[in-house]
Amino acid sequence: MQAEEKLTYETWPASPEKSTLEAKNKFLGFWLFLGGETVLFASLFATYLSLKDKVPDSTHHLAKDIFSVPLTLVATMLLLTSSLTSVYAMYHMKNFAFKKMMIWLGITVLLGFGFLGLEIYEFNHYVHEYGHTFTSSAFASAFYTLVGFHGAHVCFGLGWILALMIRNYKRGLNLYNAPKFYVASLYWHFIDVVWVFIFTVVYLMGMVG
Amino acid sequence: MTNQPLSSSNPRVDLEYRRKKNVEEMRHQVISFTLMIFLTFIAFAVVALKGFTASFIVPFILLLAAVQVVFQLFYFMHMSHKGHEAPSMFLFTGLFLGLVIVLAFMTIIWW
Amino acid sequence: MSTYAQKKGFGATVWDYLTTVDHKKIAILYLIAGGLFFLIGGLEAVFIRIQLAVPNNDFVSAGAFNEIITMHGTTMIFLAAMPLLFAFMNAVMPLQIGARDVAFPFVNALGFWLFFFGGIFLNLSWFLGGAPDAGWTSYASLAIHSKGHGVDFYVLGLQISGFGTLMGGINFLVTIINMRAPGMTYMRMPLFTWSTFVASAMILFAFPPLTVGLTLMMFDRLFGANFFEVAMGGNTIIWEHLFWVFGHPEVYILILPAFGIFSEIFSTFSRKRLFGYSSMVFATVLIGFLGFMVWAHHMFTTGLGPVANAIFAVATMAIGVPTGIKIFNWLFTMWGGSVKFTTPMYYAFGFIPSFVCGGVTGVMVATAAADYQYHDTYFVVAHFHYVIVGGVVLALLAGTHYWWPKMFGTMLNETLGKITFWLFFIGFHLTFFIQHFLGLWGMPRRVFTFLPGQGFDAANMVSSVGAAFMSAGVILLLLNIVVTQVKNVKVGNDPWEDGRTLEWAIPSPPPFYNFKQLPLVRGLDALWLEKMEGKKGMTPAEPLGDIHMPNASFIPFMISLGLFIAAFGAMYHVNDKPWAIPVLILGLAVTFGSMLVRSLKDDHGFHIHKEELQDEKGAEA
Questions:
Q1: If you measure CA to CA, which chain C residue comes closest to B95?
Q2: What is the rounded distance in angstroms from the CA atom of residue B95 to the CA atom of residue B102?
Q3: Among A107, C49, C157, C277, which is most exposed with the fewest C-beta within 10 angstroms?
Q4: pLDDT grade for C584, boundaries at 50, 70 and 90
Q5: For chain C, how long is the longest CA-to-CA vector?
Q6: What is the pTM of this model?
Q7: Do A45 and B5 touch (CB under 8 A)?
Q8: Domain Cytochrome oxidase subunit I profile spans what residues (chain C) (predicted)?
């Protein structure tokens, strides 16, 4: 099947993300990349766990002092919901419903921005309320690096999905861009997977002490 | 690729079948999303309620996280579909090595 | 129509290589750049041996010595050995599986340019205030206190080139999984392809921890973080773990492709199927897996505790088993074969005893209790040079002779090649064998000089003389290359006459689309199989048709250049230079801008039409 071909509702393949060789390669290559990213985040988690609450003296705040339930819960809900909306977008992509896909992707992006805004507010809050800055202690460095790496992934994911949406706004779906949308949504889910571990290991376990 | 077109003589029928499959799959995804939200609330609740000991909470919420990740991988990221043999092999190898690293950092770094 | 084969001017050729996405040209780029860094690293080694030739020498200062040993190790591992292996992987692996191209030609080019700019950045440190001086392992307790920008060059340079390696690894994996020719099942893949596969998988999982380690070090040194500042709650052991979680798999990433190269050579020049093919595959995969479970054996003396030491010691010794399987399989391949003594075969012969020496001392240092005695002495230096030089470098030299005709269409001179082998081989054992004893006698590694009368004088002199032999060998190889390319005598498809695998079924060098028609693979050693049935080449698996090829692109170069520029900004930002942050932003803008251009501009590639293929001569199968 040719990537540039104009397709209709009837001729659209069942798995557009894997219907050309290029798409198959992209699909597999991206999954492998996610395998590598797993080890990357594991290393960051390991570093965070071994530096958790390691501060120079008792004037510094520890994990149980700074994290709060409501903020984390709202952030989690935003990101989790954005995962569902991107699933909806892919559902419509498979059904060759371009407009609907774009709408759901748009909602995903909005939720992502919401999460990002909340994270910026959160970091700002820690810095001004608790003096918990990137350079204040090993614990703080490890916290900001782990959560910040995730935040940077969110940021990159937003830019990526937006670029895809803008680029393909006028031309609709074809077998050249369908795999791109699919892979971007995989990336978005992976960000959510990492977040599940972050809210559990960093925030909830942090609050427990 | 569970929703590969079947080789029936009428393409229209295949299409109908595929759409139905997609709808069914979407329903599974909504169910798993609901479960994930539910699990998240439980995890936050056991921490917020302050009635439980840390030795219960930590393994419990880690278990909930693991279940959520399985939902994400197998339903949202379609790893339950065919054609994901190589991806799952590499992803799980990555997860395993990641666990080894975390385990090592938790046990043999102490000063 | 032969527009593809037109003679080009010098400028056009350079532009061609700057923008190429052809895996065979990228292989040549890797070979040239890796070879250049190999010479630089070799020069540094010579300086080390001159300084240590006699006691109380003042050829270089103590500080300069630290820089030289650091750069020697870093250059040889990251900028010479890996890229040279990547050169062969790029040149040969797609041909061996019968593919027209790699899975991600663009990413492949990007990987090369990232490695190249990272390497250049690292080596610029010599001219910009001093090279890194905390050892190639750059332990945090030393590195965060290193003055000047040396360690910053190390951190940023390796970060950039590490991205390149990771991309290369993913590209090879997808190529092998998705793009094998019809009939090329996993268990029919040549051993070099198998070892490329396993090594690439290891790259995928080993480089992220290095990325994290380098990032933490960068944050500490350049942005005021406290990961390794003990007074602020930090912990320097984290670096050691992250480095070795990467570092130990890294040595297997180097040695497995070397095993692959020798497996091809043994089988080709014994003119016999590789003995125990499936056990070889199994051993390769097992070594790859175990390679991740042993990293802490580099840290026995940091005080991990007896339990951890015991676990890692046992795991390390376990690797001896699959390696032993391989050694015996090679011996049995030669047994009963009709052995032809070509230059590559000389190297293969020399490799077995040399590598076994390195393996045996490996088990010795793996014994945790005994390691307290060996640790940080020349015994360790001797050990890892026996595996890296006796394994990897011999394989690289063997591979150069073996695949030179395939890559360049000319045959290196066999007589010169054999002299090169003897010079290098004798030099290698002369240099490093005696270092075992220096270590046991108590000479610590990384010292810049020693006093007379400690019993080290003669042994160090012997070692330095050996280095001279090795240098002579390398110079002879360069001479051989120049002479060969000047004479420019072209060879045919199968210049060794005993080729077994698919790369020998197509012209040397291959046309840019590799296979006019994809070959039908009917078993292991696909070409040999056809030859034994009296056929001249492979049976095609498809009718002649249009071939889809990717477009050349300058974007990989730009993306890498952007990171190169950004690295300067990040580094000089600690000196409060006003231009530092703008430069950092400019560099990142170049990188992300180029990425954006790539993603916004459709690139569908082009087709070579059937009629053009019919007109081209010489391309069979």
A1: C205
A2: 10
A3: A107
A4: very high
A5: 78
A6: 0.94
A7: no
A8: 9-522
pLDDT at A7: 79
In angstroms, rounded to a whole number, what is the distance separating the alpha carbons of residues C579 and C569? 8
Please name the member of B90, B94, B101 whose beta carbon is closest to the beta carbon of C245.
Answer: B101
CA angle C259, C260, C266 (to 5 degrees): 85
ipTM of the complex model: 0.94
CATH topology of domain A26-52+62-208: Four Helix Bundle (Hemerythrin (Met), subunit A) (1.20.120)
Percent of chain C with pLDDT over 70: 98
Distance CA C619, CA C115 (A): 33
SS3 C503: helix
* B111 — pLDDT class (breaks 50, 70, 90): low
Task: Answer yes or no: do B65 and A196 touch at CB < 8 A.
Answer: yes
Rounded distance between C-alpha atoms, residue C76 and residue C42, angstroms:
8
Of B32-46, C83-97, C206-220, which gets the smallest average pLDDT? B32-46
Q: For the structural domain made of C3-553+603-615, what CATH number should be given? A: 1.20.210.10
Length of chain C: 621
C196/C253 Cα distance (integer angstroms): 9
Strand stretches in C92-178, DSSP E: none
| C-alpha separations of C255 from B89, C198, C279, C365, C387 in Å | 24, 11, 17, 18, 8
Which residues are CB-contacts of C422 (< 8 A; sequence separation ≥ 6)? C473
| CB-closest option in A21, A46, A137 to C233 | A137
Cβ contacts from A onto B, under 8 A: 140
Residue B4's pLDDT is what?
45
Q: Which tens digits make up the pLDDT trace of C505-532? A: 999 999 999 999 999 999 999 999 999 9
The two tokens of residue C370 are 């005994």
Q: In which residue are the tokens 């003679």 written? A: C7
Give residue limits of the domains in chain A. Answer: 26-52+62-208
Longest Cα–Cα distance in chain B: 71
